[in-house]
Amino acid sequence: MHTPPQPRVAxxxxxxxxxxxxxxxxxxxxxxxxxxxxxxxxxxxxAVASVDDALDLIDSVDVDRAVVDLKMPERSGLELVEALAxxxxxxxxxxxxxxxxIATALEAVRLGATHYLTKPADVDEVLKALDxxxxxxxxxxxxxxxxxxxxxxxxxxxxxxLADTGGNISEAARRLGLQRRxxxxxxxxxxxxx
Length: 194
Description:
12% strand; 194 residues; 9 helices; 5 strands
């Protein structure tokens, strides 16, 4: 059983001027960098490492916006996106992932995400996406705007499979239908631009 995180800020009165942003990402370094950057921009920040902690937090603290990692170790970030959308009023959120695809973008938007960004995304991009998040575009248009190039999609797929195998190159090569050496060569190439 997990222990809910202690909020770093007290629940705010409805007329408070500072917005509270929830960051839910299992990457401790990214989470800390985002939190630090947002605090410098005068936001209150709540940073958690799991969907369960985030769900506990939104029940006890007023959250104005959220940044959610899609691929989490225990539960998908999509579960949190759906819970944020069901709040009254719904909490705008941006989904971040290192493994972008049209299917997951559409699913995130369908469940209530206001935007979808692939990593690496900086804080300014995230804030812009949150501000524009209530844009009335169709989900297909929002997802298509972030469609990765074919080379980027291949790179993301290879890295997702490698992550799923715990970094085991031989097993990842087997799952991808590649020779081990071919996979090693592909991994040496830097990620293509979107």
